[in-house]
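[step 3/7] fold_predict: job queued, chain A
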Amino acid sequence: MQRHVLLSLVLAGSPAAFSADAPPPAPIPAPSSTEKVDPAKRTEVIKFLKVSGAEKAIGVSADSLIAQFKAMVPNADKDRRKFFDELASEIKAQKSVIMDRIVPVYARRFSLDELKEINKFYEGKVGGKLASELPGITRESSAIGSIWGQEIAQKIVAKMQEKGLLKNPPGAGPTASPLKSK
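[step 4/7] structure written:
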């Protein structure tokens, strides 16, 4: 699954991110495990999640999450390492939960025939290569997007300072806040 890093970075640099009284962004709808999906579509979406590499990415995300928590406990003894290993197994066992929550997202957007065509593509030579290369492409693209987002945010902050819309750049200390409009 592709991450929406660029969008997040651009939004993080938006004026709303610097304003204390700006409304929060609209929330993503809560997942519904009760949403009814045609069984044939469910089968095709699950197949897509597998052949596209999305299922594997969920496992990698779980590993990354556990690694972050492990880093919080350096020099862990044998019992604590065992705890993290068991925790990782529990999280990976829950992979079906997230996949079940993702199924309706695809099922609403694609017809059964479209899902079958998408799966045909991923089962082919080019689609298989795309699925295997996508994690690396995503990592590199995310790094590029992160740098680009920082550059854009710096330019926006500088322009806001030039226009007197911002006293200090975000993070410059306790006085960093946007000026209130008159």
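[step 5/7] annotate
Residues 125-162 form the longest helix (38 residues).
The radius of gyration is 22 Å.
exit 0
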